[in-house]
Design a protein that fits this description.
34% of the residues lie in helices and 18% in strands. The chain is built from 17 helices and 15 strands. The strands form 5 sheets. It has a 3-stranded mixed β-sheet. It has a 3-stranded mixed β-sheet with strand order 3-4-5. Strand 10, helix 10 and strand 11 form a beta-alpha-beta unit. Helix 4 packs across helix 5.
Length: 449
């Protein structure tokens, strides 16, 4: 059945700030306590989705959760009126306050894992929100993520929603940032590659030494069972622990695939060539075709440069004319080695025929590039027709969102601003207006009284 891949980008929330909350994410830690520009961040994200929509890619947006998360602050013992809660948290536990203010839901690649109907035994789209238990600030997102995904994909005749996995370290699930789907075309059956960083129930397992392996094998295996995936078309591949210790906290920082093209670093996986051969053989058995492999060696692009430039956090998208385009961060131009790899990639004979550069510096400074900002969802035309239509990007929606950002967003937030009692009200006013633009109804608790 004819199908396409849609990108659901997370809108940058009005409380976007740099708190350095993500251990193992080098850019996030490096920019901790710097002043952020929420207005610029949101407009940069909107410019990227507009570029993709103009290229003919199906593009949608996802709203952010309410921030700060006052309910969580109260659960953690901060009492009094809202202003008093903020004041106490700012003085006693600024790191907790920063976590409750985080706009990290913008990185929608971590929002969920979505399996298309072509790959599921029941021919339905399966959706599991990520529990993100590895970081406090991200673990607060799962409930709202479930709500918004059920609002967008509301028709139970086509979409199956699963609860997030149990909130334990053994089932740590970081969503689609560690999930690769490869196929001949989006509408045909493909293989699904689940990349994990550690085995939670194996006491002898040797994980990374410096940074945590965020995704567990156990979580990935649970997703496969829930989504009714065929075992013969599912692979579990271990992330290279040395790469994790070099700052590759998710697989989408070291490899990216689209349809029959797989672009990856030679040090992406624990077993190197053996893992790649498994992927190639599985693709050939499933799709009756050869996978186009685009390997980048460590000599050509050392892992440190891959992390610095976010080269592999580019998006590969299939355009209406069936050619492929790479959506890369501008940092790839500024990194000499990454720029050289891109030049060779575009000049060589392979399906990627063009590259477009996007300025996402506000997101990049917090450790998220083009691919981090979007959740990939393969849909048929019939499935798209029964989704919530208000989130699909049009010129009018883009203009409305741009004006909305200009009206409600600050152009500077410093760590001290998180104690400002007016910031929560500003954020709520922005989100209330957003639900009207996207025709989402009362999805926030403050809207329901």
């Amino acid at each position: 059945m004819k199908a396409f891949e849609a990108n659901f980008d997370g809108l940058v929330g009005p409380t976007h700030n740099y708190a350095g909350l993500s251990y193992g994410n080098i850019a996030s830690v490096r920019h901790a306590r710097a002043s952020s520009n929420p207005k610029a961040a949101a407009l940069q994200g909107l410019a990227k989705v507009k570029l993709l929509a103009d290229l003919g890619v199906n593009q949608a947006v996802m709203p952010p959760p309410e921030r700060p998360d006052i309910e969580t602050l109260r659960r953690l013992g901060f009492t009094g009126c809202e202003a008093r809660v903020l004041e106490k948290a700012s003085k006693e536990a600024p790191e907790i306050l920063a976590g409750c203010y985080s706009a990290s839901s913008m990185w929608a690649a971590n929002a969920a894992t979505v399996s298309p109907s072509a790959d599921s035994e029941d021919s339905l789209v399966h959706i599991t929100p990520a529990n993100l238990v590895g970081n406090f600030h991200r673990s607060l997102e799962a409930g709202f993520t479930s709500t918004i995904l059920k609002t967008i994909f509301h028709d139970e005749s086509a979409f199956v929603h699963h609860d997030p996995l149990p909130g334990s370290a053994q089932f740590a699930d970081e969503g689609a940032a560690n999930h690769i789907r490869l196929c001949s075309t989006h509408g045909e059956k493909g293989i699904q590659v689940f990349v994990y960083g550690r085995k939670a129930f194996d006491p002898s397992d040797r994980g990374p030494e410096k940074y945590p392996g965020r995704q567990t094998l156990e979580a990935s295996a649970a997703i496969v069972r829930l989504h009714r995936q065929c075992p013969n078309r599912t692979l579990f591949v271990r992330q290279n622990p040395d790469a994790i210790d070099s700052g590759v906290f998710h697989n989408d920082v070291i490899s990216v695939g689209n349809e029959n093209v797989f672009l990856y670093h030679s040090r992406a996986f624990s077993n190197g060539t053996s893992d790649i051969n498994r992927i190639v053989d599985s693709f050939r058995d499933c799709c009756n075709a050869d996978l186009v492999l685009l390997e980048v060696s460590d000599k050509t692009l050392p892992v440190i440069d891959a992390v610095e430039s976010y080269f592999f956090n580019s998006q590969i998208v299939t355009l209406p004319n069936q050619s492929m385009c790479l959506i890369a961060p501008v940092e790839c131009v500024e990194n000499r080695r990454a720029a050289a790899v891109l030049d060779r990639l575009i000049s060589d004979l392979n399906p990627i025929s063009d590259v477009k550069f996007v300025d996402l510096r506000q997101s990049m400074h917090n450790g998220g590039g083009p691919a981090c900002l979007r959740l990939r969802v393969v849909l048929t035309e019939q499935e798209k027709a029964i989704t919530h239509q208000g989130v699909w990007l049009t010129d009018e929606i883009h203009d409305d969102l741009s004006a909305w950002v200009g009206r409600f967003y600050r152009d500077r937030i410093s760590p001290e601003d998180l104690a400002d009692p007016s910031l929560p009200d500003e954020s709520r006013m922005a989100l209330d207006a957003l639900t009207r633009i996207l025709d989402l109804g009362s999805i926030y608790g403050f809207q329901r009284g």
